[in-house]
Design brief:
The protein is 18% helix and 43% strand. It is α+β, with helices and mostly antiparallel strands.
């Protein structure tokens, strides 16, 4: 009898349940997910595609306000992405980065330049010490994949059109004796590619 009762109390996590728990949290700004340590309830069938589309059970989530809600309770624990509420934690799949930087504004020039990025979900981040830009290059093709840190280990993949605009305002700068082509923001230089490799 006790075993039957225990089995009935086990509830499989769902997107609806997680959304309800997230909505129950009353907070200004982003919830303090870094302070929460609820039970780990395993993984759910939720995925963020490389283009920033969120899927649940293989179907795109069509409600932007629901995607935005989920994005506010997203956290990275080691190499694992999780949705965290005060009562549960579930793992989700992220194909590349959880956000996409779809636009940016640039003010100033050179070391006085400031780059502020906006994501597909309305987050903003000004590149600098707290929000570095990094570029990975595909080992086979050399294709660059640029990222900017949005918050607490959560990055945005900078979309192609924005990256092309960034390249137009890039500059060469000496880094430890080597000339690099890269980007300035808030007096920080972010290397993109060695100058010698530019054709």
């Amino acid at each position: 009898m006790a075993k039957e009762e225990m089995a009935q109390n086990i509830v499989k996590p769902s997107a609806e349940g997680i959304a309800a728990s997230a909505r129950a949290v009353k907070t200004r700004g982003l919830p303090p997910v870094h302070l929460w340590n609820p039970p780990d309830c395993g993984d759910i069938d939720m995925r963020i595609a490389r283009d920033g589309t969120w899927f649940y059970l293989g179907t795109p989530i069509g409600r932007p306000e629901l995607v935005r809600l989920f994005s506010t309770i997203l956290r990275k624990d080691g190499d694992r992405y999780v949705l965290v509420t005060p009562v549960e934690k579930v793992g989700i799949q992220v194909d590349d980065a959880p956000f996409v930087a779809v636009d940016f504004t640039a003010t100033g020039t050179g070391p006085n330049q400031t780059l502020t990025f906006e994501t597909n979900l309305g987050d903003t981040a000004t590149a600098g010490r707290a929000h570095p830009i990094r570029v990975e290059r595909d080992a086979q093709t050399g294709e660059p994949a640029p990222y900017v840190l949005i918050r607490a280990d959560l990055e945005a993949l900078i979309d192609r059109k924005s990256f092309y605009r960034l390249v137009d305002i890039g500059a060469h700068h000496d880094v430890e004796g080597t000339s690099w082509f890269g980007l300035w923001s808030q007096a920080h230089f972010f290397p993109v590619i060695p100058s010698a490799e530019l054709s």
